[in-house]
Amino acid sequence: MLKAYHLSEEKEVGTDEAGRGCLAGPVTAAAIILPKDFTNDILNDSKLLSHHKRTSLRPILENGCACFGVAHIFPEEIDKINILNASILAMHHAIDQLSIIPNHIIVDGNRFKAYKNIPFECIVKGDGKYMSIAAASVLAKTSRDAYMDAIHEEFPMYNWKKNKGYPTKEHRAAIKEFGITKYHRKSFRLLPEQLELRF
Length: 199
What we know:
By secondary structure, the chain is α/β, with parallel strands linked by helices. The termini are far apart.
């Protein structure tokens, strides 16, 4: 059973990211403040939900929350500042979009950087403990998936519609055959045999 809040009943924002381990596409973060009376029987860590459940939850969360934000950090920036910093920057940008200034931030994972003067707490596996972090994980995942579905149309040979940019055997085989695109993260180990990669 997910807890409604960690410290503060009002204006506590949960934030999470998706796509950190991908070879292509952005890292995407969401931040969301839920009203204290929000309930949902399906909501959970997005990794534990089916595609259908995540997709059906997205409008429920967007319409039922006090406010939310979603932000992408793209490969060019990821390559400059590294994936950890890009993940945290995406969370900061998502919080920037909130129409309510939060009084406390709860973050999935164990790394974050201070956002303005707002106190925060990192919670390992927080997306399986708190509703707002779980909700952020769903919004981040569904928003990123929609982006990957869109760029799949431009480069269908990588099958991003299915693998979403993660390092599947199929994705790596396509990189080996076709080289890389503007959507690939050049700072990542795209192939085990990096020397064979064509830039």
